[in-house]
Amino acid sequence: MTLDIGSLDIGFVGLGNMGGPMAANLVKAGHRVTGYDLVPEALRQAEGAGVRAAASAAEAVRDAQVVITMLPAGRHVLAAYAELLPAARPDTLFVDCSTIDVADARTAHELAVRAGHRAVDAPVSGGVVGATAGTLTFMVGATEPDFAGVRPVLEAMGRKVVHCGAAGAGQAAKICNNMILGISMIAVSEAFVLGESLGLSHQALFDVASTASGQCWALTSNCPVPGPVPASPANRDYAAGFAAALMAKDLGLAAGAAEAAGLPTELGRRAAELYADFAAADGAGLDFSAIITTLKENRA
Ligand code: NAD
After folding, report:
1. Which pLDDT score is estimated for 3?
2. Is 36 in the pocket of ligand 1 (CB under 6 A)?
3. Whose C-alpha lies nearest to ligand 1, atom 18?
4. Position in ligand 1 atom list of the atom nearest CA 100
5. CA-to-CA dists, residue 132 to 22, 120, 121, 157, 222, angstroms
6. In the chain, N or C terminus with fewer CB closer than 10 Å?
7. The domain 9-166: what is its CATH number?
């Protein structure tokens, strides 16, 4: 079923760093958004952007045609669904944009369908900057009809919407992509540290690798050393950016999924360990490219 996208009643639960600006973009697109967050300050900020504040999560979704959740982790989503699914009108479209475990995403989908609703997983890439600018990429796990229904809603918050497959496929794409990113950032960082010790300047290595087979996003857009890419967080003391804590979380989800599938993914697991250690040792709020500082410190 394709939704009439004129102007929708949307319930939005989880108005934090990402959810707040996403809800604001839905308001700008002409939708009536009713929101809820456990933190009163988050709710007040969203109100300032035109979101109607609800007194509870259940109230936020009672009259909604579409319900969007943007919560920290799978356990929050499943706990919220226990309250939201019975409160919503039949056949409401539930859209979870949080980054969560693939298994939790499939459970959330099943619970929603069993309660008489439709459900999609639609995690995002693009961070707070993309959420604010409305330029997020959405990775969607959904049936064809539900994808057609959710697409125009997501387009109000993002630039690219990709249908990755059935329930859970959006989360699968998100953690696989971020596993590539986490590993490649460590690879690029190790190369700079080794190059440095061999007397190679950062710029020389960048000039070669960025136009040779070492080319990748971690190098050419988010370069972990200051200088070669002026916009990269390395030039501003690694102010995030994409926080190392979130990279640690996503790599942990990838490692958990690999374990459940009986796959070794050795580099993915090692990257998960390195990022977890880095986040625990004061790196949590820094951009994930700051992992290079630990590689330098660990020099023998
Ligand atoms: P955040 O902590 O800023 O926001 C989460 C919000 O959910 C908080 O305001 C919290 O109070 C609220 N919340 C928790 N439980 C709730 C409940 N039961 N009812 C109502 N509100 C509740 O986190 P964020 O940075 O906005 O991230 C949200 C999700 O997006 C996470 O899954 C994260 O991994 C993912 N993500 C974040 C980024 C990023 O750069 N921040 C990028 C991509 C994906």
Report:
1. 47
2. yes
3. 80
4. 32
5. 7, 22, 20, 8, 20
6. C
7. 3.40.50.720
| 12: phi then psi, degrees, rounded to nearest 5 | -130, 115
Give catalytic residues, as residue numbers: 174
Condensed to tens digits (0 to 9), the pLDDT of residues 152-192 reads: 999 999 999 999 999 999 999 999 999 999 999 999 999 99
Candidate from 13, 15, 18, 98 with most ligand 1 atoms within 8 A of CB, to mutate? 18
Other beta carbons less than 10 A from residue 179's beta carbon: 23
Question: Within a 13 Å sphere around the CA of 131, how many CA atoms are in the beta-carbon half?
Answer: 20
| Whether the Cβ atoms of residue 157 and residue 31 lie closer than 8 Å to each other | no
Query: Where exactly are the structural domains of the chain?
Result: 9-166, 172-297
Instruction: Give the number of residues written for the chain.
Output: 300
CB 127 less than 6 A from any atom of ligand 1: yes
Q: Which pair of structure tokens corresponds to residue 81?
A: 């669904």
Cα 23 to the center of its chain, rounded Å:
15
pLDDT beneath 70, residues of the chain? 1-5
- The CATH T-level fold of domain 172-297 is N-(1-d-carboxylethyl)-l-norvaline Dehydrogenase; domain 2 (1.10.1040)
Residue type, 87: A
| CB of 60 closer than 6 angstroms to any ligand 1 atom | no
Residue 58, CA distances (Å) to 22, 35, 84, 147 in order: 20, 10, 5, 25
Residues 64, 281: Cα–Cα separation, whole Å: 43
- At 207-230, the pLDDT tens digits run 999 999 999 999 999 999 999 999
Residue whose pair of structure tokens reads 């497959």 in the numeric block? 165
What separation in Å is there between the alpha carbon of 91 and the centre of ligand 1?
Answer: 25
> Which one, of 157, 9, 15, lies nearest residue 92 by Cα?
9
Beta partners for residue 36, in sequence order: 13
Amino acid at 56: S
